[in-house]
């Protein structure tokens, strides 16, 4: 038979093991909950911007120029060109985005393009070559003294109907375009939501 001291020590040890297992399961559950919340908050904070059209045909490139010209003309009616700067919220690597940037610049607007990778995990990875070459590093928003108006766009398609939404700060401009006989034209008036 074990002495009383050893029984108490053994009992205390067993209680510590049980407590550690309970704390471990609580810790695991807490870490899982925190991970899920971080993932969900990332989804809620990143609104989808850009083109959702999978068409890379020459016709869509022409349609993009026509729509971008119309969008830039509407923006020109609302904002003075020579004194307005726009900061793109997202990469504009589609035909519509490039046509819009070109048209806004030719109309006299300053446009700061977003150069961050679309994937935030890839944005965190930077090669040593990039860190050595300072002249090719993207300009951060903090480096700019005069911040421009935040500009984003969403363009999507349903059959022959194209839907364009332009977001400038907290207001939204929306217009539909219809493609018929190889041409595209507005399908209605501009709608402005503040």
Poorly predicted regions are: 126-134
Distance between the termini: 82 Å
Helix-strand pattern: HEHEHEHHEEEEE
The percentage of residues in β strands lies in 15-25%
Give the integer mean of the pLDDT values: 78
Topology:
Blueprint: H1 4-45, E1 50-51, H2 58-78, E2 85-88, H3 95-106, E3 110-112, H4 120-123, H5 128-132, E4 149-158, E5 161-168, E6 171-180, E7 183-186, E8 191-193
Parallel strand pairs: 1-4, 2-3, 2-4
Antiparallel strand pairs: 4-5, 5-6, 6-7, 6-8
Helix pairs in contact: 2-3
Tags for this model:
194 residues, alpha/beta, 8-stranded mixed sheet, 5 helices, 8 strands, 43% helix, 23% strand, elongated
Describe this structure in words.
The protein has five helices and eight strands; from the N terminus they run αβαβαβααβββββ. It has helices at residues 4-45, 58-78, 95-106, 120-123, 128-132; strands spanning 50-51, 85-88, 110-112, 149-158, 161-168, 171-180, 183-186, 191-193. Strands 1, 2, 3, 4, 5, 6, 7 and 8 form an eight-stranded mixed β-sheet that branches. Strand 5 (161-168) and strand 6 (171-180) form a beta hairpin. The radius of gyration is 27 Å and the shape is elongated. Residues 126-134 have low confidence and may be disordered.
Entry summary:
The chain has 194 residues and is α/β, with parallel strands linked by helices. The protein contains 5 helices and 8 strands, in the order H-E-H-E-H-E-H-H-E-E-E-E-E. The protein has helices at residues 4-45, 58-78, 95-106, 120-123, 128-132, and strands at 50-51, 85-88, 110-112, 149-158, 161-168, 171-180, 183-186, 191-193.
């Amino acid at each position: 038979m074990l002495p009383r001291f050893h029984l108490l020590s053994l009992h205390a040890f067993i209680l510590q093991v049980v407590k550690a297992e309970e704390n471990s399961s609580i810790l695991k559950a807490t870490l899982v909950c925190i991970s899920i919340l971080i993932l969900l908050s990332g989804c809620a904070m990143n609104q989808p911007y850009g083109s959702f059209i999978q068409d890379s045909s020459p016709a869509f490139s022409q349609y993009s120029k026509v729509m971008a010209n119309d969008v830039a003309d509407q923006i020109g009616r609302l904002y003075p060109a020579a004194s307005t700067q726009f900061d793109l919220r997202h990469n504009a690597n589609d035909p519509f985005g490039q046509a819009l940037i070109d048209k806004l610049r030719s109309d006299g607007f300053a446009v700061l393009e977003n150069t961050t990778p679309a994937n935030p995990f890839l944005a965190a990875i930077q090669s040593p070559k990039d860190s050595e070459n300072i002249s090719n590093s993207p300009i951060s928003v903090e480096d700019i003294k005069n911040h421009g108006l935040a500009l984003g766009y969403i363009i999507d398609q349903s059959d022959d109907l194209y839907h364009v939404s332009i977001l400038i700060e907290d207001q939204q401009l929306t217009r539909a375009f219809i493609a018929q006989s190889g041409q595209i034209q507005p399908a209605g008036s501009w709608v402005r939501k503040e």
